[in-house]
């Protein structure tokens, strides 16, 4: 068995959807193929590790709880597993091969690899990882179901931040796909405002699992209501054609620019953002944001004209996210909604805006902790719906992401006239 084949196999074992992708390769290197006869393990014997069914079928028989369970027996098939993680546990039943059975075996001394405090890293805890990584951490509840929360210092504007829903939903989908496949496109809809004081349940639906592609639908729910839904497609990397016609727009190098944090500290009027965002991105709040942002000065950036619905800025994750391409794409999805919706308000001074839909296409590998340039423009608005189109480039000028978004512009409502008393 090749390491790549084993990694792909392990990514489809339900027990392992909570593990970081770095653990899969390590488990693949340590596990061995084990072809057994009639009895794989016997009840009463001390466990020596974990068995993953690679090929064939087996049945569990003679459970010590058989009388209580009325003698119920069940079968084990591909992706099922059995055994114990330490030498002190005893098998409670026989496992008998029904056909020729091939298992991957992980000895007990390496079973600590099956335990992880984070879905993104086997070495980091939520306290030591990058701020955005802790926001994108989900708690696996059961197969295909995850729980996310809104951390106290996470971005929020009276409701769950839209980028958090995209990033967490994509994280949930990514954990149900083998680590050799990574997201290449997503399409999402915002259905209801999320309550940031209530946990969010992410239900993943496995629509397709092919050799090279996989498709997932994720419903984000609060109190039984679907507030957000995402459809994502994942592809196994392969060599193919390559070209790029898009050119990175002119922008000063980020190393010579002040960050929004620094501008907020030095200028009480706030950074050069659309007016609707200045109250949201003031000096007292931006320091808690997990994303660092840099704009060029208004005098040198033609995209900051009062009536021009476009914007360009550099951004990157604060800290050092774990080295997982799936995580880095989730981070970019999280960050892509941070300021983009404010572009829609530049030519239309309204009370506010509300995201309706969000789509992204990931073209090339990226690092969310390296500077990325987002250039976004609104080519049209009609019927109160503003359409946004954006491109994200790395510092080499490579187009790494394309995105679109539709935003609902909300008119400022006039106050109700006071009623005159008829008495």
UniProtKB/TrEMBL annotation:
The keyword S-adenosyl-L-methionine does not apply. The keyword Nucleus does not apply. Keywords: Hydrolase. Coiled coil: none annotated. Belongs to the C/M/P thioester hydrolase family. This is Cyclic nucleotide-binding domain-containing protein. Pfam families: 4HBT_3, 4HBT_3C, cNMP_binding. InterPro entries: ACOT8-like_C, Acyl-CoA_hotdog, Acyl_CoA_thio, cNMP-bd_CS, cNMP-bd_dom, cNMP-bd_dom_sf, HotDog_dom_sf, RmlC-like_jellyroll. Residues 15-87 form the Cyclic nucleotide-binding domain.
């Amino acid at each position: 068995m090749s390491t790549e084949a084993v990694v792909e196999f392990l990514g489809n074992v339900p027990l392992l959807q909570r593990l970081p992708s770095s653990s899969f390769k390590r488990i693949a290197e340590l596990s061995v193929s084990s072809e057994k006869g009639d009895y794989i393990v016997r009840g009463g014997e001390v466990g020596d590790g974990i068995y993953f069914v690679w090929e064939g079928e087996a049945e569990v028989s003679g459970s010590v709880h058989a009388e209580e369970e009325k003698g119920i027996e069940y079968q084990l098939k591909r992706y099922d597993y059995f055994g114990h993680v330490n030498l002190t546990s005893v098998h409670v039943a026989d496992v008998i091969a029904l056909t020729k059975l091939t298992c991957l075996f992980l000895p007990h001394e390496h079973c600590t690899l099956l335990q992880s405090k984070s879905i993104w890293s086997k070495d980091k805890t939520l306290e030591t990882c990058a701020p955005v990584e802790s926001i994108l951490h989900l708690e696996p509840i059961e197969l295909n179901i995850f729980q996310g929360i809104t951390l106290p210092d996470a971005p929020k504007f009276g409701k769950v931040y839209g980028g958090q829903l995209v990033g967490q939903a994509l994280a949930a989908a990514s954990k149900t796909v083998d680590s050799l496949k990574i997201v290449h496109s997503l399409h999402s809809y915002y259905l209801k405002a999320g309550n940031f004081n209530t946990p969010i349940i992410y239900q993943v639906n496995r629509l397709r699992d092919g050799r090279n592609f996989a498709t997932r639908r994720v419903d984000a729910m609060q109190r039984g209501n679907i507030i957000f839904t995402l459809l994502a497609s994942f592809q196994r990397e392969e060599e193919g054609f390559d070209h790029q016609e898009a050119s990175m727009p002119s922008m000063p190098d980020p190393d010579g620019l002040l960050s929004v944090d620094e501008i907020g500290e030095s200028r009480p009027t706030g950074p050069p953002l659309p007016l609707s965002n200045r109250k949201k991105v003031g000096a007292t709040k931006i320091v808690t944001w997990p994303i660092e942002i840099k704009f060029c000065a208004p005098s040198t950036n033609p995209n900051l004209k009062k009536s021009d619905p476009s914007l360009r800025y550099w951004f990157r994750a604060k800290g050092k996210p774990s080295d997982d391409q799936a995580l880095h794409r989730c981070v970019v999805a999280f960050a892509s909604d941070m300021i983009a919706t404010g572009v829609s308000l530049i030519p239309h001074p309204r009370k506010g805006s509300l995201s309706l839909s969000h789509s992204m296409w990931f073209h090339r590998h990226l690092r969310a902790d390296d500077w990325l340039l987002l250039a976004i423009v609104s080519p049209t608005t009609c019927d109160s719906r503003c359409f946004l189109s954006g491109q994200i480039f790395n510092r080499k000028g490579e187009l790494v992401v394309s995105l679109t978004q539709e935003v609902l512009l909300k008119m400022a409502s006039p106050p109700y006239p006071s009623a005159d008393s008829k008495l």
